[in-house]
Amino acid sequence: MAIEGAEDGIRVNVVNPDAVIRGSRIWDGDWRKERASTYGIDAGQELEEFYRKRSLLKQNVLPEDIAEAIYFFASDASSKCTGNIINVDAGNAQAFTR
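Given the sequence above, the corresponding structure tokens read:
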């Protein structure tokens, strides 16, 4: 899409978040239970702790972190960016560009 839109000045970029638990309905109910079961942990606070500990920076990814990345791509600061991905994941080695 970035290649197709570039000639018309259309920029195409992606924000790739990891496990935004707080404020995300995806973690309500069955999804949360399934993820916890997959890792053999309790679906309560232990799941959030699991995702924090698996990140290289040992931090939670919050909704405002994702908003900041989106704001960057929407701002003039990224006016020369297209075809890019920002991983907002506190350092998830599985998401590193290969």
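The radius of gyration is 16 Å. Try to locate this feature in the token string yourself.
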